[in-house]
Design goal:
- This protein is globular.
- By secondary structure, the protein is α/β, with parallel strands linked by helices.
- It has a single domain, classed as TIM Barrel (Alpha-Beta Barrel), CATH 3.20.20.
- The relative contact order is 0.14.
Length: 325
């Protein structure tokens, strides 16, 4: 079978640096789903092979949950730096194939500010990946504001990645935490960013919500309803919650299915959807995502926006690098 012409841009594509695995231990890295996943066999070469088979020209790499914060400041700073330098080396070794979404050691604000500077100015990162929560705190917390203000000043792109908050581990017998909590921690993160006023205040940053927004599209009217009667919160969202939710970008990782896309497209247009695969994690293969989008019913123009052009608007410096079919 001939390989697809590379044109897609994957904004949700994971790397698993060897030092990261040795630091956390294989069990912590690979057992989030309750079993040893295919991610345990991840290599750069396999990543490239999957990209080539599925017409992916460029993948923006990031580290998945649990991220680089494990409760220790020195360790968080070192892990973030090691993972970011690993990603930068990949981008150097395979020009045009890999972009960089750098990790930050939140809730360490000072360390995160230093890593923003290093990642952007030295490593030339394309954006950042942040977990949906840190130590029972969600990203809109007042203490995190200096980090988001700096990301806004830099006009950065930020991908939120779901994790399991310590408050919500082991809640359901026999059900791995990530099955449910990844989805609803995403909702908590978006709601936190919305009603802290962070989305409104940081209007120059661009934010990507994973998995077609998880349950945000289904719950958006309920979330927005708070704005109608709480004047204090409404003052933090002067243009209204729906305006802010429609400004966000939503990726297709593990979600290229009608039951995920239909609710999202009641909230946003295809111009706010970006191609993402979650490789090498999850229950859908990369080819499942490609097939799901192709069969959904997008127009040719909308599908091209989702698979490529929306990402180019987020990352314009890639326009001359990513080859057009």
């Amino acid at each position: 079978m001939p390989r697809a012409t590379p044109h897609r841009i994957d904004v949700h594509h994971h790397i698993i640096p060897p030092k990261y695995v040795s630091e956390l231990g294989a069990e912590r890295v690979f057992h989030q789903s309750g079993r040893i996943p295919p991610a345990a066999q991840w290599t750069v070469q396999r990543s490239l092979e999957v990209m080539d088979r599925n017409g992916i020209a460029t993948a923006f790499t990031s580290v998945s949950a649990p991220g680089t914060w494990l409760g220790n400041v020195d360790q968080g700073r070192r892990l973030s730096r090691e993972c970011n330098e690993y990603a930068a080396q990949l981008a150097h070794d395979f020009p045009g194939r890999f972009g960089i979404l750098a990790s930050l050691p939140l809730p360490d604000v000072d360390g995160s500010l230093k890593e923003i500077e290093y990642a952007l100015d030295v490593l030339k990162a394309d954006g950042f990946v942040l977990m949906t929560s840190y130590d029972d705190k969600w990203p809109g917390e007042k203490g995190f504001a200096p980090v988001f203000d700096e990301l806004n000043r830099r006009k950065a792109v930020v991908l939120f990645h779901p994790t399991v908050c310590p408050c919500c581990t082991g809640l359901i017998t026999n059900v791995p935490d990530a099955t449910v909590e990844f989805m609803f921690d995403t909702v908590r993160a978006v709601t936190s960013m919305l009603y802290s006023g962070t989305f409104s205040r940081c209007s120059d940053a661009r934010f990507i919500v994973p998995h077609t927004g998880s349950a945000v599209p289904l719950l958006h009217a309920r979330i927005a309803g708070l704005w109608n009667w709480n004047k204090e919160l409404a003052a933090l969202v002067p243009k209204g919650p729906i305006h802010e939710l429609r400004k966000l970008y939503y990726d297709t990782a593990l979600s290229a299915r009608p039951e995920c896309l239909d609710p999202l497209l009641h909230l946003v247009t295809p111009e706010n959807i970006v191609f993402g695969t979650d490789y090498p994690w999850g229950g859908m293969t990369v080819s499942d995502t490609v097939k799901g989008l192709a069969g959904y019913g997008f127009s040719a123009e909308a599908l091209r926006n989702v698979e490529r052009d929306n990402a180019l608007r987020l990352f314009p410096r890639w326009c001359p690098k990513a080859n057009r079919p």
